[in-house]
Amino acid sequence: MKRDSRKVEIQKYLKSIRVKKIKPIFWRECKKCGLEFRRENIYECIYTSLPFEHTSYSYGCTNCFHSEEYFVKWLQDNDFLYTEEKLQKWFKKLKEMGYGF
Ligand SMILES: [Zn+2]
Q: What beta strand segments (E) does the chain contain?
């Protein structure tokens, strides 16, 4: 058996990305418009952040984002969230520095 440990690691991060609609109890700020919301539907994106594997949260209101997919894409396009390509670059850089895979 064989496996590519970098690929496994990248998949682990990509699979950590979850989006759902929530009604927050506390004020949550939309990443795009900067307004704060509570007690109404907004999108929440949860993902494992690099490099310390903290669980991170981003929020987006339904005025700015019409779907979960669009919210994730916007986060990725604006560098708030990684893509497979960015993770590959990140791990390549780590390897060049003598760390990781
Ligand atoms: Zn917004």
A: 18-22, 28-29, 36-37, 42-48, 55-61
CA–centroid distance, 6 to ligand 1, in Å, is 35
Query: Residue 58 CB: number of other CB atoms within 10 A?
Result: 20
| Average pLDDT over all residues of the chain | 94
pLDDT digits (tens, 9 = 90+) for 45-90: 999 998 788 999 999 999 999 999 999 999 999 999 999 999 999 9
Q: Are 69 and 81 in contact (CB under 8 A)?
A: no
Q: Is the peptide bond before 51 cis (omega within 30 degrees of 0)?
A: yes
Distance (Å) from CA 79 to ligand 1 centroid: 17
Instruction: Give me ligand 1 centre to Cα 46, in Å.
Output: 17
- From ligand 1's centre to the CA of 59, what distance in Å? 8
pTM of the predicted structure, to 2 decimals: 0.89
